[in-house]
Amino acid sequence: FVSKKLKNVTWAEVQQGFDNLPVSHIVVAILLTVLNYLILTGYDWIAIRHLKKKLPFSRMMSGAVVGYSSGNVLGWLFGGNIVRYRMYSRWGFSTLEIVALVSILSITFWLGLFLLAGVAFLVLPVHLPDDVLKMLTFETKLWGHISFSQKFLGGIFLGFVGAYLIACLLIRRPIRFRDFSVSLPPFRLSSMQLIVSAGDFLLATATLYALLPPDIVGPDKINFSTVLIAYLTAQIAAVLTHVPGGYGLLEVILLTFLEGPDSSNTGSIVCAVILFRLIYYFLPFLVAVILFIINEYTLPLSRTETNDGG
User: Fold this and answer.
1) What distance in Å separates the CA atoms of residue 232 and residue 205, rounded to the nearest whole number?
2) Residue 297: its pLDDT value, please?
3) Which helix (H) or strand (E) covers residue 253, if one does?
């Protein structure tokens, strides 16, 4: 399907996208990526705080950069989770604590995604392509023609977020499943989950948006909210399919959402995706490799340094 989408794209069209993109936009994209990876540290901070563990901020940041950049490039199943387990186990975390930490990271990820998708569908000018609108329409024998509107989807997404926040506010006792128990984070910490995750997705989308040539973006062209929904959709597809790095999925989904009916923007969109892969995926991954090697050649924290604490 990727080759079908790209079969009519010539290198000359992609090169034109590079030529039409000011260097200042690339600089902005790099700065946004740096800021985004600083924000990503918040995921680990929230999880460690909820588990009542102690860890130096520098190691939290290393774990976040290595974990997320590895997940982006190699996939979460074979990249992010494995290196995160390696690093946190060397820092004195037990296997059960690492599983709990990764679970909290996942919940934080989905909360921000649902929040932004809900807000975008309800109040922002999102322009869904015809192919996507057809996917939201079904024919059933019992109820006949069913079509899910953008506002309906937005309400569903925000409903999940609201239900989680209410549960965190009202359910303070541990939830037990046989011999296993889990505690929901307090309302203040769950609110932080929303802020950090939403900030992450907004910055990633802003990075991608900055790499689109100025002549194809704007309120009446490709707007920010449409790029946001396209990026969120690509993230959902990558997580659910476990495709390493979402290779192919990101390209197809962005082209489906963003290219015009005459496909005149295809070369510029491909250019933006190439630069996004390089700046947002591979540059942080190079930093992550260095941080991982440093971690391998330094002594892990002792057990006493990661004992339960505030």
Assistant:
1) 9
2) 82
3) helix 249-258
* Sequence-ordered list of residues with C-beta below 8 angstroms from that of 260, at least 6 positions apart, any chain: none
Cβ contact 118:161 at 8 Å: yes
Rounded alpha-carbon distances, angstroms, from residue 130 to 7, 72, 168, 256: 20, 29, 39, 9
Q: Calculate the alpha carbon distances from 103 to 81, 107, 168, 175 in Å.
A: 11, 6, 16, 15
Kindly report, residue by residue over 127-160, the tens digit of the pLDDT. Answer: 665 555 555 555 555 455 455 577 888 899 999 9
| Tens digit of each residue's pLDDT (9 = 90 or more) over 254-306 | 888 877 555 667 888 888 989 999 999 999 999 999 999 988 887 555 444 44
- The two tokens of residue 258 are 């963003």
- pLDDT for 256: 80
Nearest to 101 by CA among 167, 37, 48, 140: 48
Distance CA 82, CA 96 (A): 14
Distance CA 244, CA 239 (A): 9
What the block records as the tokens of 197 is 């995750």
Q: What is the DSSP string of 58-116?
A: HHHHHHHHHHHHHHHHH-IIIIIHHHHHHHHHHTT--HHHHHHHHHHHHHHHHHHHHHH
Residue partners of 262: CB distance under 8 A and separation at least 6:
none
Quote the CA–CA distance of 205 and 199 in Å, as a whole number.
10
Look at the block and give the residue holding tokens 């690093």: 87
Integer Cα distance of 111 and 190 in angstroms: 9
Q: Is 233 exposed, middle or buried (0-12, 13-18, 19+ CB in 10 A)?
A: buried
Considering only CA atoms, which of 26, 29, 101 is closest in space to residue 63?
101
- Of 190, 222, 223, 227, the residue nearest 207 (C-alpha): 227
Beta-bridged to residue 138, according to DSSP, are: 146
pTM of the model: 0.84
